[in-house]
Known about the structure:
It is a single chain. This protein is an alpha+beta fold. Helix content is 49%, strand content 23%. It contains 3 helices and 3 strands. β1 (85-92) and β2 form a beta hairpin. The N and C termini lie far apart (105 Å).
Amino acid sequence: MTSPGVAGRLGASDRGAASLFLLALGLVFIAAGVAGAAVGAARVGRHEAHSAADFGALAGAAHAVDGAASACGWAARVVAADRARLVSCQVDGLEVVVRAEVAVTPLPGLVRHATAAARAGPVYPICGERLQGAADVKRAC
Length: 141
């Protein structure tokens, strides 16, 4: 005449609940990992696009004196070497503005594009602005 007790009654009704809880917790961790990887891939793509645009603009500015065709040609070569696509190239005097695009695959089957723009060329004076590091010297207008 012994009774099963409280532990015996709870154990019989909760059989397998810990397994389901651990399975759900594991799925949450997997989902968080996949989301983190997707965010990381997007950030890397953005940095690659910025880098390609920066180097393309610098290459274009170095050849801006040869004309817009030469400057944009060099910018396109450098952007392509960075595994990016040249979206636009604008030359205004010695100033070159390059827009580059990189394909990003944050998740399998999902393709997005990261775009960045960069400018390279001479620095133009701005009236009344102080030179950095020189407290009392102003730029000429």
